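$ ./design --mode recover --in tokens.txt
reading tokens...
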């Protein structure tokens, strides 16, 4: 069976590799460099399992920039294109999904379309009404950047937003490629599946915000954050997971998904979702103020990435802190080895750790790693457990 997967980011590539273990998969992307990397069995994203599978496993996988090559003979098309949040419309920009769907309808009208991109609640139902001749499914993705393939090989759940035989078949295909056999499978309505995705990510953002506000309180009152977190986590209903303070939730998913869910509420009564979104801004304001209290002359930003083990720094919370420091006239230098450029957002980039250390009097790190120990007392972080 031939499957076309459109988009080779975290979602698209991890699904392509899982499905390519048992089916012919053609990955379609507009980026020729990424296509070339995949055809040379090099992962274009930082993900250890991904590179292992590309290098060492038998996969029926090839990549192309040619839509005709991808869609010809395809029985399934998985759409995993970006849906960035549009602050003017207060909704995801779904234009890439619609462009792919139009191309599929023209080239492979018999194919079953599965949307893996995150979309607003009610979006798939609207597409179905506009294209009743086509089978369109929505299947939310639950993965971590840097562990995308692992999370698809060991899925916490498989959800498909439909109860048809096609939906059941797609769930079976995902389960077929997973390493775990006892995986909960849930077939729902398409709108319910869209809501599951946004509510799940908003809960994760809420948990991040909760422990960050706990930390803000402890720092302000001169208390031991770690002791409070450990005591709170001893309640089995709360647990000791996902509780490490940070500069705020960031990355590609949580900021945009929380704002999209808030927009979807419209005139539905709520206060909590607004509070989750606002809490992230408040946390970055506090962190910036706490750094400024040290009266720094030149601040070093250690890594722009959203989390350890990732190469993505889109919407990372440390950039929010950095912009606040810049607005107060603080000189900033950046250590980010993934950047091969002299400056970033008006700040000098230094890719030698010793030079970076010597050039700063305060170094700010959202997450610690093996290199941060050398910075000593000049290091500012709220990372207590050296994990995400």
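writing sequence...
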């Amino acid at each position: 069976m031939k499957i076309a997967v459109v988009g080779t980011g975290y979602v698209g590539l991890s699904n392509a590799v899982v499905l390519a273990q048992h089916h012919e998969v053609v990955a379609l992307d507009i980026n020729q460099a990424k296509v070339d990397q995949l055809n040379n069995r090099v992962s274009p994203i930082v993900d250890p399992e991904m590179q292992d599978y590309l290098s060492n496993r038998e996969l029926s996988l090839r990549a192309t920039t040619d839509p005709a090559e991808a869609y010809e003979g395809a029985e399934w098309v998985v759409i995993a294109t970006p849906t960035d949040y549009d602050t003017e419309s207060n909704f995801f920009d779904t234009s890439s999904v619609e462009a792919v769907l139009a191309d599929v309808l023209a080239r492979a009208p018999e194919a079953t379309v599965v949307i893996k991109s995150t979309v607003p609640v009610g979006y798939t139902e609207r597409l179905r009404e506009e294209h009743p001749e086509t089978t369109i499914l929505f299947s939310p993705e639950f993965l971590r950047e840097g562990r995308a393939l692992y999370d698809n090989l060991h899925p916490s759940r498989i959800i498909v937003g439909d109860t048809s035989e096609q939906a059941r078949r797609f769930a079976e295909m995902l389960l077929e490629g997973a390493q775990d056999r006892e995986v909960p499978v849930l077939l729902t309505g398409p709108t319910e599946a869209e809501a599951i995705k946004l509510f799940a990510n908003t809960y994760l953002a809420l948990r991040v915000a909760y422990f960050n506000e706990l930390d803000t309180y402890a720092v302000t009152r001169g208390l031991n954050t770690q002791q409070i977190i450990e005591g709170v986590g001893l309640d089995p209903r709360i647990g000791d997971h996902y509780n490490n303070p940070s500069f705020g939730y960031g990355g590609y998913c949580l900021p945009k998904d929380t704002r999209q869910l808030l927009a979807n509420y419209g005139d539905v009564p709520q206060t909590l979702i607004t509070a989750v979104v606002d809490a992230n801004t408040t946390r970055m304001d506090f962190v910036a103020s706490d750094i400024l209290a040290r009266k720094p002359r030149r601040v070093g930003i250690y890594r722009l990435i959203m989390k350890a083990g990732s190469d993505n720094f889109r919407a990372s919370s440390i950039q929010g802190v950095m912009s606040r420091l810049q607005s107060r006239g603080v000189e900033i230098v950046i250590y980010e080895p993934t950047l091969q450029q002299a400056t970033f957002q008006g700040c000098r980039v230094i890719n030698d750790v010793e030079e970076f250390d010597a050039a700063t009097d305060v170094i700010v790190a959202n997450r610690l790693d093996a290199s941060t120990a050398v910075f000593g007392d000049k290091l500012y972080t709220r990372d207590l457990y050296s994990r995400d």
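exit 0
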